[in-house]
Protein 1
Amino acid sequence: MSGLSRRGLFGLGVAGVAAVGAGAVATRALVDEPVAHASSTSGPVPFYGSHQAGITTPAQDRLHFVTFDVVTKERAELVGLLQDWTAAAARMTQGKDAGTFGAVGGDPEAPPDDTGEALGLPPSGLTLTIGFGASLFDDRFGLADRRPPALADLPAFPGEDLQKEISGGDLCVQACANDPQVAVHAIRNLARIGFGKVAVRYSQLGFGRTSSTSRAQATPRNLMGFKDGTNNMKLEDTAMLRDYLWAAPGDGPSWMDGGSYLVTRKIRMHVETWDRAPLAEQQAIFGRDKGKGAPLTGTNEFDAPDFAKTGPDGTPVIAADAHVRLAHPSSHGGARLLRRGYNFVDGSDGLGRLDAGLFFMAYQRDPRTQFVPIQKTLSAKDALNEYIKHVSTGLFACPPGVVDAGDYWGRALFS
């Protein structure tokens, strides 16, 4: 089964199978190998590059996010795991099985080296993005002096109700894809490969991206029914990405040059209460029209909000505690984030209420000057706080990309 794509397992004819026999495809070709008849949502995303995929990649529709605690005490085992994970990620993002022999091609008396639930499925735009939590930089692996200053613990914010068991973690992996089974398959295989070296701390499924990361994408809606992330940074914003997304030489340790910092927040929405609020109140809270997404001072979604505009009674059209005002870069010295959040519905809470909300994810160059001041303002003043509760948090240093088959996730950190 080596080199056989998921789609190829069921869709290739005899000639096609012969053409991709064992050893026929070089590892580096995983980047450029085309997938026959792939559409923009089902084809592969290149794995190798100066930055990790899954950050500026046009946001896919599905998420499986997981954090791990490292249970081995051996540095060499951790490095070996990162090498194994990188090789598996390179394969899976191109629609291949996680291991050389795949789900059905190995010794029948041994466990398969792929779990098999993605057999027959295309790559579906799968990206895998890794990050290192602050807890990894303790005294276990000799990394304490390599912790970036920007990986400083996030402060406590007013009103949050954080659950320790779904916060933090030594490692995180973000799997995004346009097919939920492809995303779950990827995380499941990394957990399988890591057995005995890492243990899953928590995971989160997400659907219906809540931000666009490309101008080619329409702005999606969150579970409150509002367009979300209208002013998000986009992959086309080259200068902004340089200034606000990618860690630069001199920002911190050199192993993070070209990387980024990920903040995660699980935000529970009190949707039943929200659904009983009048439309006018909902729009005043967001500062936007619910239908078009336009600011209350404009007519189109991308109109710049006019925070100085007042109504007939002399009060601001966009209220002082409106979300759009408090989250706007002008309120934080121009600070911006690249958001990649997802909706979630995790069943009900046992009291007849949906356990639903937003799994917020935002990448940035330095959380101390970007996420932290923004969240301080929002948590203290945002009218939306009546309807939401932050229940988990995470901060991860996401290293630069894997440049070729001889590289691996975090190599410079351990060099």
Protein 2
Amino acid sequence: MAELFFQGGGEIERRDLESHLSSLCQLENVGILLGAGASKSAGGMVMKEIWLDFKARNEPKIPILRDKYKLIRQQEIEANSVNIELLIDEVLKNKNVIDTWQQDSTELQDLLVELYRSVTKAALLVDSDFPKLHVGEKEKFDKHKNLLEKLISNRQPGQAAPAIFTTNYDLAIEWSAEASGINLVNGFSGIHSRTFQPHSFDLGFRNVNAVGEARFGHYNMYLYKLHGSLTWYQDESGDVIECNSSKAYQDFINPLVGEGSFNDKQRLIYPGANKYHHTIGFVYGEMFRRFSEFLTKPQTTLFVNGYGFGDYHINRIILGALLNPSLHIVICYPELAELSANSQLENGLSPAQQCIDKIRKMQLNQVTIIGGSDAYFDNFVDLIPKPVLFPKNSAVNVIAEALNNLGSTSKGE
């Protein structure tokens, strides 16, 4: 796959891109938006693969969605381009209407459970190892750890900690940060009952023993999960709780993935119409508000990777934010070379492709687009400037091993 690098209206060389990325990492505010493609190398599924998983198990039920309720079109089915999140939303809306009429909604409930099942399988990443400790030490998360370490080590004294925005439900970022010894501020606070407290996003960590500029080093990152998480659930009082992976797997995930069991007492938060109601709506609304607020700050960089521009709300926020003259956006889009060719086809571009094409044709100097193989997550991480504070991907493990060996040597003397 050919490499393509565009800034503004023209193509740039790889050397210029690397220099540009280095400069962007030094701006006052640095964030990254990660989509499903960013977790694929760690075992995740992209939207097409989630649909294929659902379709393989529910082929006889497809006509219910297509013909009876007209929620998907034959063209989408044949192209395997069904957006699972939008489909969940529509199924849930139709089910709620039927329930209001006090009619039987069993067939939609069964389809909803199967959709939830596919979405959950796509986000597990490590299958039955999900509830285990130290999952982030697995090799498949090396690039995620490398990304976090690079972002935080490129921060200068007095600058804001990096911000991670993601549409993914998986725990790739949480596990990787834990393995690298990085504190994550994700909006939840508490020890035994971690409830959503948005003011925690306004807090940070500092070294109380440091003086001078060292006092303003960075010991944390901010994580905003725009579409929720596999470890979020809503308790009986309506509060949104973050539980550990062991409890989430035992109480919610395994019964669904393994047995297709799902009931009202399982309060794991999934995408769909319910995300805009009651307490859930407050949590999601706060996440999106913080995302919009971040993009309006002066001297800000947003890297976009693994996101296919299939979410209308996020696209509007990004396009609107381009009015901020000091915002710089770097978009990774592997299929960039195909846009021009597809635009000449009879069916034209998909809505997601139209958004990318629109951004490209705006020819703004504040937008850089990376196409080809370098746009994939693992290769993009390699493009980010080499860190100083974390000279090796496995720095934490190397130091821990050295300390253990030192202890063993002392005992042997």
Protein 3
Amino acid sequence: MTTSITQTQPAAASSRDALLSELAAVLDPAGLQTGDAIETRFRKDWYAPLDPVPPIAVARPRNTAEVSAVLAICHRHRQAVVPQGGLTGLAGAATPAGGELVLSLERMRGVEEIDDQAGTMTVMAGTTLQAAQEAARAAEWLLPVDLGARGSCQIGGNIATNAGGNRVIRYGMMRDQVLGLEAVLADGTVLTSLNKMLKNNAGYDLRQLFIGSEGTLGVITRAVLKLAPLPASTQTALCALSRYEDVVQLLRHAQRKLAGRLSAFEVMWADFYELVTTRVSGVRAPLPAGHPFYVLLDLQGDDAGQDAPAFESMLETAMDAGLIQDAAVATSDKEAQSFWQLRDAVAEFPVMWAPNAAFDVSLPIGRIGEFAQALRAAVLDRWSTAELVNFGHVGDSNLHVSVYLPGVALPDFPEHEISEVVYRVVQDFGGSISAEHGIGTHKKPFLGCSRTPEELAVMRLLKRTLDPNHILCPGRVVDLEVVDLD
């Protein structure tokens, strides 16, 4: 099934000149890049096409008023706009297509307030996640969302993509940290609801329209984030297990025994563990290879004197029950970081396994092991020499899969065909094609695998209502066509 929606067309040259003249009038000299002055970094996000094209211009507003002015002008001229944050996205949403204008939030940086009584932070959208984390830590609070791109990704982009990361099992997705938002609609209308209250049922919760919408419904400019108490103690262990059923039992066992203090539960299949410990420089193997599964888990608590014994007791009882075959417990922060290097080694895949097709899916936790087996069989049935690795958060139902075809280089690498195979299996298992990376352009053709026609129709209705001229991120998420593999 294919559904189409009319897309905004590139502006004619005369209209473009008028557009740029109006933009220059509302922005300072550093706020608008055109022609040869456009920096190449604005051409693509992390997931990029082979030949990225330059935008017609880059607008770099300093505040919400300037964002509003820019969008009002673009709305009037029917000029397509793609908002950009830290350009760390993996779904292509921030990569400009031909004739689009980039709206960069990078100059809108800073933590405006940390309210110690409310336990909140008010922050501008262009602030990097790491800067916000450090500001919270300096005030003896924790901003819980954490991901590998923390030094580059921005708060606005984290919210627009509903970022996840390693601590979701305890603290939830980015959505769970957002109490209030300020966003600008396609026509320049500013919606300001910088709420600090956990409870606020005064009508529709409009912030939810923008969280996870990938810039298609509005541009986030400021946010109020919920903070958590700063942990005083961290315990880390790497465990080896024999069966996926034991992985699930260990997860539930740890959650019961640690009483809400389990903050990470990362699972690595044997193929992933062997690959990163033998091929990635600087990554050591704390446990011998050969076990079917490896689990990296963290406890974060407020009392080291109680947390360490509780963590060790949890591991001991799991070993006595036969769930864990072997384990290594970190005895220092440095050793804990070395354990995490195993999981973070995935950042090397684009270099050592190029090209590869990477997938971010979610499944019911109890079926992830079965899914991984079915997926391997389906891929190998199509490409007998393919290599696959599986790893993921699992405790929050998220699995990452990478597929590599030895000897196949670009442009012959069949990424779309691999995606068809993977997403068909995801659909068969009732999963989601995107756990935390978003849809963008990369996954848009397969959205029908995880969403019903009725859900897609409501998404399009929201898009038409909030962006009638289809200027915000045209062609992303639901804007053009969605294909159901059936």
Protein 4
Amino acid sequence: MGGGPERYVGVGERRGRIGVRHLLGREVRAGRPEEVASALVALHGSDPATVYLAVGARLAGSVKTVGETERALYEDRALVRMHGMRHTVFVFPAELVAVVHASTGVTVAARERASLVKDMARAGAPDAVWLAEVEESALAALGRRGEATASELALDEPRLREQFTYAAGKSYEGVHTVSTRLLRVLGTEGKVVRGRPLGSWTSSQFRWAVAPAHPELDVAEAQAALLGRWLAVCGPATEDDLKWWTGWKVTEVRRALAAIGARAVALDEGTGWVTAEDVEPVAGPVEPWAALLPALDPTAMGWRQRDWYLAPELRPQLFDRSGNVGPTVWWNGRVVGGWAQRADGEIVWRVLEKEGVGREAEAAIGAEAERLRGWVGATRVTPRFRTPLERELAG
């Protein structure tokens, strides 16, 4: 890492890289959910349906999207749902669990446990020693059961039902149950992971399971490994993009860039970074491509600076007030509109940016809508974070 930019990478090449490396061009689509997760590094898991919709958009054949993704998540355990960057739930390839935990989870976990102990103390609840006893008992019960809900674990460890008042006297005062907060802490610490949902693949209520064993890695080495893996998929990216995506301090980002020998390139936004092996130009897919990506899709949420693939004037209709992106329609590496599912199951879409979107594009977008409806079937999918355009189209 060092020196001036080696070359300029324009918007056209960056959009072409999306088509190839994010498996969106028809000729580069994947055959299995594991391949999708590995290619993208992480699939957003805050909205459970996003995982399946993001996988389905990138599979060569989407008929078995749900069954194959459930197999990878809950039978083979090739994919793991856990807390990661920015204190957000993601689905990662199993081989990245240790890397994510060391690079990001350890810091978050320490903060979460300290916050829980502090909140309990303020409420006059039992102390950290009591909490440790409950934790040990709960983990043992979870190990015996294999998978369990918080309510089921409370049958074995009744102290999990204890409640305490949070932020007493404040406008956001509330009552927390020990099980809710403790399981969250154990999740960030890498001791438990989310198991099968209680309902269908769109359900947001999950069972818990003991996390698979993984080695404890050096933090700096893990950060370098994660940043290098992501940059190979999403590079070039600015320092601001990297800091936002990882949730790390700028000093940590710079240390990781130096560790992997990242190379500077010039972008319209300023200096961008690529891996040492990725300096040469990259061609996009041979055929033009269209995609219907879900809310919180990892491509749409991949960078903090998005003007090169998403026009600023489209954002009010495609994002909610918290900055969460809704379902998007893509044409050749840029967002051109949005989509939704109506109550009768129909997939409807609208192009918001007309420039460069002719008959070929509309035919390709329509074909993707039909492909999506074909495998979603009778399931109704409503994004957890709804946006103005999605609400309007859903009707």
